[in-house]
């Protein structure tokens, strides 16, 4: 993988930033930064679409949204919030009210003049095609991993606004290296072809290789290429959250590339922990913001690198009762390593590549051949409310929540128990 950290550092210098890896910002500092940054930017008389995360990403979103609203209301001609669902379940009105901070008085009372929309990815009329990335360009940007063209479809709400302003956190990410920036467009509010393309390129590289990788990864390069087709001006207010709290280490503002690059530099120092030696077993305690395995799988992605060969990752999430509400295909194919699909490509090539990618990300490293079958490096075990038959059919291990003794695992010197799993990446020195 090409080292592009110098390019990212150069981009980062083009963004305004407050805070850093050793900082914990006050709300007054963050508010002043947002008001000044947006106040110095030409928004007057222009329509603005705020692209924000859904409930699976943690940051003090109501506070940030309140500051952005304060900075823009009365200046812009139109203000719309678009929830970057990707292909997650749509947020209900109750969930939106809590997520955005208007549950008591209602949207208009809290944020006058603002509209809130789910990204309705399940409706074809949601999208407009911006063009295509050619097979030759895909091959170039992916380092030869794929050579296939992809339609770049995006939620049409973006092109109907003068400015697209991304507001959200940056964390280590299993598909792209670090989340945030243009990733809020692709896959956040994108059509299926570009989602499948980028996710499968990430799967071919493997989650363990790409997660937490600094610089412009092949997936980030493809996302940035797609973003050049967006006609609206693209800006970002990126934040680096103190995981497990409502506090922030840093906030950045600038173009979607520059603000992301600056925030990713901080995230690389605050959201990555190092162990001196591999562990035999991990128990990932999954927070309730992840309500299916599709999203809770981050508890595996962030821990896979520190587990010894032959070890186990236990996903402890007794509140979860589904692998995926949306992507039912996962029940059909189950969880397998990358080579299981690559070496039987004719059998799986017509499946959504995003589903195949998710499957490989949760199953981790392994090999496959016709003689020995599939041999995975780690065992993955679920402690959830999903029925045992469904779990085992998906090629995962099962322990009933009633039979799981968390205290015993916490006392076991061979077990690493991780609270609030899913955001902090663990690696070996």
Question: Please, could you describe this protein's structure?
Answer:
The structure is a single chain. This protein has helices spanning 5-12, 27-39, 61-72, 93-100, 107-110, 135-141, 156-159, 192-205, 207-210, 218-227, 256-270, 293-296, 298-301, 329-333, 338-342, 345-348, 353-363, 388-393, 406-411, and strands spanning 16-19, 47-53, 78-84, 114-118, 127-133, 150-155, 163-169, 172-173, 177-178, 233-241, 248-255, 272-275, 279-285, 307-317, 366-369, 373-376, 379-384, 397-398, 415-418, 425-428. It has 429 residues and is an alpha/beta fold. It has two domains: 5-270, Rossmann fold; 273-428, LarA, C-terminal domain (2-enoyl-CoA Hydratase, Chain A, domain 1, Alpha-Beta Complex). The strands form six sheets. It has a seven-stranded mixed beta sheet with strand order 1-11-10-7-2-3-4, sandwiched between helices. A five-stranded parallel beta sheet has the order 18-17-14-13-19. α1 crosses α11 (256-270). The longest helix has 15 residues, at 256-270. It is globular. The model has no long low-confidence stretch (mean pLDDT 95).
């Amino acid at each position: 993988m090409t080292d592009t950290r110098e390019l990212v550092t150069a981009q980062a210098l083009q963004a305004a930033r407050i805070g850093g890896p050793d900082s914990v910002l006050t709300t007054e500092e963050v508010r002043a930064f947002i008001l000044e940054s947006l106040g110095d930017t030409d928004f007057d008389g222009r329509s603005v679409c705020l692209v924000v995360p859904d409930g699976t990403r943690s940051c003090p979103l109501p506070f940030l949204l309140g500051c952005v609203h304060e900075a823009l209301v009365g200046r812009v001609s139109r203000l719309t919030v678009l929830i970057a669902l990707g292909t997650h379940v749509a947020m209900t009105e109750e969930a939106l009210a809590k997520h955005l901070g208007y549950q008591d008085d209602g949207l208009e009372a809290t944020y006058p003049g603002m509209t809130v929309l789910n990204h309705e990815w399940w409706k074809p009329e949601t999208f407009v095609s911006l063009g295509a990335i050619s097979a030759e360009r895909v091959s170039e940007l992916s380092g030869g991993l794929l050579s296939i063209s992809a339609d770049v479809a995006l939620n049409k709400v973006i092109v109907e606004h003068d400015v697209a302003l991304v507001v959200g956190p940056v964390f280590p990410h299993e598909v792209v290296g670090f989340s945030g920036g243009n990733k809020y467009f692709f896959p956040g509010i994108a059509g299926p072809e570009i989602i499948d393309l980028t996710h499968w390129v990430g799967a071919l590289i493997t989650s363990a290789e790409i997660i937490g990788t600094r610089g412009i990864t092949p997936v980030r390069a493809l996302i940035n290429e797609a973003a050049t087709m967006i006609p609206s001006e693209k800006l970002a207010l990126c934040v680096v959250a103190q995981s497990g709290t409502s506090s922030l280490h840093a906030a950045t503002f600038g173009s979607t590339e520059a603000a992301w690059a600056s925030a990713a530099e901080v995230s690389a120092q605050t959201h990555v922990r190092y162990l001196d030696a591999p562990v035999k077993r991990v128990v990932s305690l999954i927070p309730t913001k992840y309500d299916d395995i599709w999203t809770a799988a981050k508890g595996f992605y962030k821990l896979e690198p520190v587990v010894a060969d032959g070890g186990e990752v236990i996903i402890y999430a007794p509140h979860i009762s589904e692998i995926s509400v949306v992507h039912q295909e996962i029940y059909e194919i189950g969880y397998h390593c990358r080579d299981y699909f690559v070496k039987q490509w004719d059998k799986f090539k017509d499946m959504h590549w995003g589903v195949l990618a998710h499957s490989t990300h949760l199953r981790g490293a392994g090999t496959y051949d016709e003689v020995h079958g599939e041999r995975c490096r780690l065992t993955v075990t679920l402690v959830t409310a999903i029925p045992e038959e469904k779990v085992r059919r998906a090629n995962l291990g099962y322990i009933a929540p009633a039979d799981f003794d968390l205290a015993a695992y916490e006392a076991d010197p061979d077990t690493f128990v991780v609270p609030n799993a899913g955001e902090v990446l663990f690696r070996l020195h």
